[in-house]
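Student: Please help interpret what follows.
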Amino acid sequence: MSRSTIPARRRPHRPLTAGAVVAVTALALLGGGPAAAATRASGVQPVVTRAALDPALVAGRGANVGFLEQEAENAHTNGEIIGPDRSAYTLPAEASGRRAVRLTPGEYVEFALPSAANAITVRYSIPDAPRGGGITAPLGVAVNGKHVRSMTLTSQYSWLYNQYPFSNDPQAGLLNPDWWITECSCVPSATTPYPTISTPFRPTHFYDEQRRLLGRTYRAGDRVRLTAPPGSAAAWTVIDLLDSELVAPPHVRLLAANVLAFGADPTGRRDSAAALDRAIAFARRAHLKVYIPPGTYQVNRHITVDDVTIEGAGSWYTIIKGREVALPTPAPDGSVHTGVGFYGRDAADGGSRNVHLSGFAIEGDVRERIDTDQVNAIGGAMSDSTIDGLYLHHTKVGLWFDGPMTNVRVTNNIIVDQIADALNFHTGVTNSLVAHNFVRNTGDDGLAMWSETTANARNTFDHNTVQSPTLANGIAIYGGRDNTVSHNLIADPVREGSGIHAGSRFGAEPFTGHLRITNNTTARAGTYELNWNIGLGAIWIFALDRSIDAAIEVVGDAYLDNTYNAIMVVSDWPVKDLYSITNVHFRNVRVDGTGTSVVSARSSGSASFANVDARNVGAVGVNNCGSFHFTPAGSEFALTDLGGNDGGWLAPWLLPNTITCDDRPPVSPPPPPTRW
């Protein structure tokens, strides 16, 4: 969530073996030619993964993307492999696959290209400045031993500290001393003597990423070496992964309102916001599209869009970049800053319609979390609209839609390094689709539907990839009616969340109708809840504000390498006798590896299970605490066995409601997942 009225919880992870990866080396690469010979000579072999997993394990799940992922720990290096580790506030925990490579000045990591490429993306971390604010440091990029260009890395958009809503100051005292914290198992402001709180307190959000065109196309087998040069200002550089891509030439639109004709500056030296406004106004009158050719355009405020199509030359070529600007007085919505973003009109003013945005990047300048700020890349209300092929970077939320609104299609976008969510359908968004989007390193939920005040309805999150949210969940649904979460790939949530979450919380309207969660895969999901002092599940159903009794159908999911439980149903302790969770149905689900149980029940209610197969289970199959009254009749949570539940996890003696409560069971790290 980007905004909340209750304190966010914080939770650490613990060490665990990372997911398996498989070398993917084409026979042609081994057959001959200079590139193949160079690869053999160096000993570097390309290992292609998806979410640090063998791609075969996640076939048909997640976004279709134009790049190939290679984890640094599988490449050739003279640096140090760090991890695996799932303990929050550590560099490995926030890395893809929970491992990365640490370089000191003079050290390198080298990748063999698995396919022809002319562009790379490097995910990395470098230290913060001693008093916060970040540093910059160079990274050398060489191909086949020849230096091609340098990258200037920065930690100015990384490194948050402290309690929600976080601080950029590593030396700051507690932001909320009246909150209970695990570090002292106390409420500091109510404790005498006041506990010692070490600083920096709870560092997080370590990683950033940077894209770079290489200037020419290199062949499969060519060796890309990333070097932290001697004398670097960074005492260490952590490389998490390299994405390589063959980027198509720039898209050209001749018959259009070209923003250059209206005074836009493609060098980025002058502000182009007014020029974009003029081009949009002309295009609407002339019934033309707006075209933004290659270049970097400075825009430091919102661009209002309504009944207009805006096309760029491609997200690698057309970049809309802006500074965050402090407002002289707060805006009516509470914002104290503005910044670059394309916004529909407010829903209260009728919203916008027929908006189509494609083929450009939005580079923001958001370095702190202020929940009232509207400093998102895309915002407002946009009905009957499409958002396609954008690259959204360094804003607060990639796309925050405030409805009511209907029929928006968000497809094929890359949304990375956000301070809060990647996308949120907030309040009355209906009949809309989010598909084939790639999300990495959000500071809150990756993709969310939040039915505050007005229910979201009939929306679908389909074939998206969400990796490494540093806080909260990969995909979260807060209330609503007849929504679907399907064919998604979610990996490596870090703290205070799960891979998939259905929550009656944040004042959301109730779940009604159905919620269908089908054919998704999670990897290394489920985190440690600091306040509860327990582990969550890869899928987590939570009754906090009210009971959940709508039909929740979980069909065809795969939960791989689960940190704790695969499935958790829970109501919070103060409301455990008020609210229950019923009408939940699991069918055709596979669980490969749990640190603890397959199912953890900490609520009254019921669920049914059919063809749920599990292996490598670390504890009793069902950890059933019910609502903690431990009655002679058994737990208040009942499980119905509909047959076909293989692996011995749902033994007859557990049915229907045997109390098997171990409040904090020991964790047995499972082996890496393999093909079923």
Observations:
- The first helix runs from residue 27 to 31.
- Confidence is low (pLDDT under 50) at residues 2-41.
- The two ends are 35 Å apart (CA to CA).
